[in-house]
Amino acid sequence: MGVKLYYTTVTASREVKSQQAEVMRILESKNIPFEMIDISVGNEVREEMRNKAGNPSAVPPQIFNDDQYCGDYQSFSAAVEDDTVKEFLKMA
Predict the structure, then answer these.
(1) How much is the pLDDT for 1?
(2) pTM for this model (two decimals)
């Protein structure tokens, strides 16, 4: 099992960049290993992320544990506030 973070290196959105950086920082601070998957490498990777998330308009960051969808930035942020990150990541 492994946490996967779908992100993009190509975005004009400061909000997306900030959200991606915060997710990475928090995962690293909690010593949670994760794989980064860059959706900007091709449409098929973006479509894979959207299909797995069950949302045809999903934007990064999107978080999974293997192929199990955990949530987006807003739900991750709520889990951080509630101190339930491991449950959010389906690790507990």
Answers:
(1) 56
(2) 0.94
